[in-house]
Amino acid sequence: MLILLASAYYLMMNVIGFSTMAIDKSKAVKHQWRIPEATLLLCAFLGGGIGSWIGMYTFHHKTHKWKFKLLVPFSILLHIGIISYLIYYFR
């Protein structure tokens, strides 16, 4: 049951991460109010790093900003580490 909940959480966060990149890129093109960078990074660090990373390169958005090039992959590695630790600790 816990694995199902964790999987649903990560799926949801990655959809949100991907969607926020798409929405922010759309708003950037239209010169509208944007989603703050802190919010985009927060989505990645809350478990949506893979979706955010895919969104970055699908929409060519934030790919030249060092913060995103460094922190989004770091968030992915962080969650891989957390999940690996939990799997090892609870087996």
UniProtKB/TrEMBL annotation:
Keywords: Membrane, Transmembrane, Transmembrane helix
InterPro entries on file: Cold_shock_CspA (IPR012156), DUF1294 (IPR010718)
Transmembrane residue ranges: 38-59, 71-90
Domain of life: Bacteria
One Pfam family recorded for the sequence: DUF1294
Entry annotated with the keyword tRNA processing: no
Entry annotated with the keyword Transmembrane: yes
Molecular functions (GO terms): nucleic acid binding
Name of the protein in question: DUF1294 domain-containing protein
Native organism: Listeria weihenstephanensis
